[in-house]
């Protein structure tokens, strides 16, 4: 019955020529709306290649881009994977981002439905008595009105694309928030990984310090015995005691730092302290990633994709604001059957219809439409600036990570060689002291320098791993692996 109703409405052409003529006249009047200068993104914002890095031993890479490597495949440490799973389930910011995506999706559904006509089925049944003194015949009359109809409720003919532009804007907002929640997830995973690496580094430094304390306490015991029997001086004993106290002071500081780091990891993951990793000895392994080209950031970084969707939504809002200066044409109509009696509703000759097209264009609105156009134009310019800023931030993060990785690889080689040299120096210094060729002060300096070098080496390993984590995140790590390759491209929203 609804399809028959629509066919009936299309068979009523007499009002349409007059309606379109009026629309053209009003369009000519509205065409004088002033234009506004709109910014466009800079085309040369990304270089063709990454700048050459200083020569050094580079980590082996694969041909797989970082965005195509899921975080489960990049972070190969089982304990870290468990922490990331817990953080993704617990973090309130991520849950809020997911809810905002659902909100924007529902808003897009509402705006998209406005492009389609609303057809409803209704029925009206009324009966009334008119007194004799109110009737021209001088007699009281009892009359009835029975109707059953299918109605078209004020459907706007989107000749100028206003409704479509609003729908495109809602779609852009939805896709921007969807990409944003992926950016939130990527940032959360990065925070968990960095905190985990810092915790593992502190554990390793604590283990080194505890072994040093145990070794120096054993030396202190021996020197106390030697002092008691008079084979060494109390001055040498105080030097050994100084070494022990220095190591214990470092251990206390590291224990405090580990407690603070564990609290930060607890806040991110929502886990109890007992469920956090305790003194793991296995090394952390991260999968190598390919650097790719700078232009790949436009399709692999969720924050850049979100900014581009936001820019397209802003452009669609400007188009809708411009279309508001043009006349609006709406169709309202109904088709059905009517009769004075209920049993006559479906008899021949009871068919009834109504068709009421309308056209409207505000002549004076106090500058409201122009102010709205100005507002949307400013928001588009802000979206352009935000888009460029996001790309520049992404470039800086990638360049920082690449440069840091190269420098830290070289620094790690130097620290490894330094520790080996200081370890040999400490052995020789103790040997010379035992043979009486040098004072214990040489042993004191050598032991102190060796502990410092060992701590620096552990910190250097952590810094290199942290840089690899930052590079993975800066290259959009895991975004395409989450099924985003089939998502609409921002260019599809161009109004």
From TrEMBL:
Pfam families according to UniProt: OEP
Protein name per Swiss-Prot or TrEMBL: Efflux transporter outer membrane subunit
InterPro entries registered for this protein in UniProt: MdtP/NodT-like, OMP_efflux
Family per similarity comment: Belongs to the outer membrane factor (OMF) (TC 1.B.17) family.
PANTHER family referenced in this protein's UniProt entry, alphabetically: CATION EFFLUX SYSTEM PROTEIN CUSC (PTHR30203:SF32), OUTER MEMBRANE CATION EFFLUX PROTEIN (PTHR30203)
Keyword Signal: no
Lipid bilayer topology: Lipid-anchor
Origin: domain of life: Bacteria
UniProt-annotated location(s): Cell membrane
Coiled coil: none
Record has Amino-acid biosynthesis as a keyword: no
Swiss-Prot/TrEMBL keywords: Lipoprotein, Membrane, Palmitate, Transmembrane, Transmembrane beta strand
SUPFAM superfamilies assigned: Outer membrane efflux proteins (OEP)
């Amino acid at each position: 019955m609804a399809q028959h109703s629509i066919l009936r409405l299309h068979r009523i052409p007499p009002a349409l020529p007059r309606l379109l003529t009026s629309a053209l006249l009003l369009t000519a009047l509205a065409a004088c709306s002033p234009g506004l200068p709109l910014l466009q993104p800079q085309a040369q914002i990304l270089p063709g290649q990454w700048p050459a890095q200083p020569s050094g031993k580079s980590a082996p890479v694969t041909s797989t881009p970082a965005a195509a490597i899921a975080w489960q495949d990049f972070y190969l440490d089982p304990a870290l994977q468990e922490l990331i799973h817990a953080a993704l389930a617990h973090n309130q910011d991520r849950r809020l981002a997911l809810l905002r995506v659902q909100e924007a999706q529902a808003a897009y559904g509402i705006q998209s439905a406005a492009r389609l006509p609303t057809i409803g089925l209704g029925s009206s049944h009324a009966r009334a008595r008119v007194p004799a003194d109110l009737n021209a015949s001088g007699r009281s009359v009892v009359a009835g009105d029975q109707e059953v109809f299918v109605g078209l409720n004020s459907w706007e003919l989107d000749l100028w694309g206003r409704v479509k532009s609003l729908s495109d804007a809602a779609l852009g907002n939805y896709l921007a928030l969807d990409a944003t929640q992926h950016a939130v997830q990527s940032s959360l995973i990065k925070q968990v990984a960095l905190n985990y690496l810092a915790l593992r580094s502190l554990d390793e430094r604590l283990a080194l310090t505890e072994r040093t304390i145990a070794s120096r306490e054993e030396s202190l015991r021996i020197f106390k015995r030697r002092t008691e029997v008079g084979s060494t001086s109390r001055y040498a004993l105080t030097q050994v005691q100084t070494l022990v106290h220095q190591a214990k002071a470092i251990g206390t500081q590291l224990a405090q730092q580990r407690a603070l780091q564990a609290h930060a990891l607890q806040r991110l993951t929502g886990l109890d302290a007992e469920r956090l990793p305790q003194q793991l000895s296995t090394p952390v392994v991260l999968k190598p990633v390919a650097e790719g080209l700078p232009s790949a950031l436009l399709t692999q970084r969720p924050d850049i994709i979100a900014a581009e969707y936001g820019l397209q939504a802003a452009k669609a809002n400007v188009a809708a604001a411009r279309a508001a200066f043009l006349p609006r044409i709406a169709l309202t109509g109904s088709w059905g059957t009517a009769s004075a009696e209920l049993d006559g509703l479906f008899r021949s000759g009871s068919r009834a219809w109504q068709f009421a097209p309308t056209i409207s264009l505000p002549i004076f609105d106090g500058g409201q439409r122009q102010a709205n156009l100005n507002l949307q134009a400013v928001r588009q310019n802000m979206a352009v600036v935000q888009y460029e800023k996001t790309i520049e931030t992404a470039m800086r993060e990638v360049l920082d990570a690449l440069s840091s990785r190269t420098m830290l690889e070289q620094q790690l080689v130097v620290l490894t060689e330094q520790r080996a040299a200081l370890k040999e120096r400490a052995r020789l210094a103790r040997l010379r002291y035992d043979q009486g060729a040098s004072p214990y002060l040489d042993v004191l300096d050598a032991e102190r320098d060796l502990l410092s070098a060992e701590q620096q080496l552990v910190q250097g390993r952590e810094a290199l791993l942290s840089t690899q984590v930052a590079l993975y995140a800066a290259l959009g790590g895991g975004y395409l692996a989450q099924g985003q390759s089939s998502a609409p491209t921002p260019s599809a929203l161009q109004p």
